[in-house]
Amino acid sequence: MNPWPLAIQSGSPSSEDEKDGRFCGKEGDLCKCFGKVRYGRLFSWSGDLAVDGSVNCSAALFGDPMPMDIKICKCYPTICTTQVGICTPEPCMCATSRDPDFEWAKKTLMTGDGTKCWACERKRAATGIADNTNSSFCPTQMGRCSLKRSCKCESPSDTKRVMRTKSGEKCWTCAAVGEGRALGMDTGQRAMFWMLPLLWSFMDWPNSFWQVCDGDRALTIFVALCILGYFCQVFAPFLRLDRFFSFYAPCMKKGEFWRFFTYFMLHSDLQHLCVNLFHLMDALDLEGVPDLEVSPGVPLKCTRDGPVATICYPDVGIGWNNVVGIMATVLAFGALLGTMKNFGALVQGASSVCFGVDGALIALYGVFLGAGLDQQLKIPEFGAFFWMRIGIIAFHIVIDIVQSVCGSGKDTVGTVAHMSALVAGFCYVIIFLPPMGDGSFFGSDRLGTPRQCGATGIG
């Protein structure tokens, strides 16, 4: 019987979340990885380099695939085998155990011909000890963790990870890449999954839900009014809300101008309501990006001094007051222009606001690009994010047009109202240039002041 383990190519990518690589450092940083590392940006990357621990992220080591300002390193981790008598001959790391009572521990082995290899074995999991200090940084001592989810890693080369205390509570700690697997930590990068604003509320339910509600108050109240109006229509028909809240152009002669701003609360059926709510919740970034993490240590919001994540959301939010202003503008424009062809049409629903906020978002991201702020934030793949964001908006527009065409022109009033609202939302941003973000990385409160226009070349 052969006492030596058999080395085979049994390693595999660490997860579906990391099949496109995980950011591990920018130019000049130390990239920590157990697997293969690539150097470059966008669609131009160097060849794979096997790394067992760390490597310097530089053109001198990898070669320069294409002259560009900012380059990063991506790690493609390999998972060690767990089969008895078999080991992985290339650098690898252990998977995260889904069972909180057990863990996978990495061990170094040697084959019969002297080749170094690695494997993972199952052991009983260690629990973390909660650190009750008031520090804003997560503990780095082995076995120590913080109960504050908002804690950050003091060292930019460390990775924030989650573990559990003896009582089963979640807590957070920081460790170098490849370390701490014995603590039952989770390092999966789920950035792409959480890119849709619709899903932000479910990142860390229910805490994330309340964070989104607090950060996007205007949109939250608007959605709540839509739901309240629908329930009143269904369960309290005696209130006759459709008689007093619907937009009906002839009523303007009587001075009933409130109808411009109340018809959004009424929806013909549940499907109509749900489609509009999903559309609105995909535009949460118009008001602001909440302080959430797509995975431990990876913020949803782009920050000037934060980690250079592959994709993040720049905070182009314009605040609740300007969001309310856009809503009022697009509601009025949508109702007026939508009923020009059919003066006696009865208008209901929040669709005008849905398309109005889409138009505002297109303008905001256009101004963001025109001002070169993606370069100031050093977002490595902002182009991919930008087209993904525009693609979501374009999808809603195409569906609306297709519905109108397939309806043989029966929904012309709705389509005209939606496109009018889209243009109105776009024009609101271009004309008023509302302040963008929370001031954490913009040089001025107002993007578009004469000083800033001169500096960035927009104007």
From TrEMBL:
It comes from the Eukaryota. The keyword Ligase does not apply. Its main location: membrane. The keyword Glycosyltransferase does not apply. InterPro entries: Rhomboid-like_sf. Residues 1-20 are annotated as: Disordered. It is a multi-pass membrane protein. It is found in: Membrane. The chain crosses the membrane at residues 218-239, 323-340, 352-372, 384-402, 414-433. Signal peptide: none annotated. Keywords: Membrane, Transmembrane, Transmembrane helix. This is Peptidase S54 rhomboid domain-containing protein. It comes from Durusdinium trenchii.
